[in-house]
Amino acid sequence: MPHKIKILHLISKIDLSQGGPPRMVLKTFQAQRKLGYQSKILTTSKYLIKKNKFIYTGTLFNKRFAIPNLSLVIKIFNEIKKNDVIHIHNFWNVFVTISIIFSRYHKKKIILSPHGSMHKDNLKKNYLLKWIYYYLIEKKNLGQVHKFHFLNKKEKINFSYKNYIKKNNSIIIPNSVDIINRKYKNIKKIITNKYNFSYVGRIAKNKGIEIMIESYLMFKKKNFDISLHIIGPNSTYKKFLQNKYNNVVLKKNIYFHKPIYSNIRFNIMNISTALFLLSDLECDSILAKEVWASKGLLITTKMSYNEDYYQKKIALIVNQNFNSIMKAMTKTIDDRKKMDIIKENGYKYSLLSLNIIKNTKKLTISY
């Protein structure tokens, strides 16, 4: 495919506080431009993203269902008309629906990256509403998708609408990362004890943060010189956690931090004793990829991974219970040589399989 092709990425919201999809849309867009493609983003954003000639940010009339206001609807229509390939991210919102309808009208090639939104387990949330919405509107839209982009085999296997998957209309490309250059600065607040455990990301109920804190508190009874650092944006759930553990945070070295979007977070991943990822379900965690690229150590659950981490030996896999998590924490302290091997394995894996330029090139050629 010639580099002069015009690509438009559409995502309803691209604030970095929203987690993995916005970060990957930005990274893919940047990698495509480095590769010589004419790539743009059309989205909405209140924070962190500056409007320029390659990124257009509009306004939503309704945030819950991502309904664009009139000026944004007109912008979507006109921008789709100007471009050749329309790459749409996520699903189940009006912004996406309008984008697909306009792409169909202009007879453009549609690429859809669900980012886990069409996983059969995610479909259980608001199931009736999604069922109605699908049969009224999205059934025709999905039939016009030129290619489905899945992040791993597990997402494809658990895709809710397999009847739309044909022999050559899907591709699997994982979330990928840049080669990370670490600069050790501004990390004193994280190195508070001899052993420092961390979590970096969205603070939401499904991220397993409560069981992480409870496991840490039980583990601390026998290991005094440890700390737990929870780094992420403000949310109702973050306030709930701060209130719930208000009486123990200072006594037990538990620290809540503001989100860190700069490369300093990679330093934290590298110098932490281990990073936690104990989610109920992850499609293709950006946090995991960044930990490996930072040469950090990951403690994660069986529901948080999608690749054969056992075979690759790049993470400590635990069950979602106190004993399993505490056993992993013990290993991170008592067997540092083995942990260094796991960290090195993860780093090599990131270089071999998660290079953003290499994987973006493969994705874009598949258009």
Please estimate the helix content.
25-40%
The tally of structural domains comes to 2
CATH homologous superfamily heading of the largest domain: Glycogen Phosphorylase B
Main CATH class of the largest domain:
Alpha Beta
Could you name the CATH topology of the largest domain?
Rossmann fold
Record field, number of beta strands: 15
- Spatial strand order of the main sheet: 3-2-1-6-7-8-9
Descriptive report:
The chain has two domains: 6-172, Rossmann fold (3-Layer(aba) Sandwich), CATH 3.40.50; 195-353, Glycogen Phosphorylase B (Rossmann fold). The strands form three sheets. Strands 3-2-1-6-7-8-9 form a seven-stranded parallel sheet, with helices on both faces. Strands 12-11-10-13-14-15 form a six-stranded parallel sheet, sandwiched between helices. Strands 4-5 form a two-stranded antiparallel sheet. The protein is globular and about 65 Å long. Helix content is 39%, strand content 18%. Strand 4 (60-62) and strand 5 (67-68) form a beta hairpin. It has 367 residues and is α/β, with parallel strands linked by helices. Helix 1 packs across helix 13, helix 2 (70-82) crosses helix 3 and helix 6 (209-220) packs across helix 11. The model has no long low-confidence stretch (mean pLDDT 90). The protein has helices spanning 20-34, 70-82, 94-105, 127-142, 153-157, 209-220, 236-244, 264-271, 286-293, 309-312, 322-334, 336-353, 356-366, and strands at residues 6-10, 38-44, 55-58, 60-62, 67-68, 85-89, 109-113, 147-150, 170-172, 195-200, 226-231, 254-257, 274-277, 298-301, 316-318. The protein is built from 13 helices and 15 strands. The termini are close together.
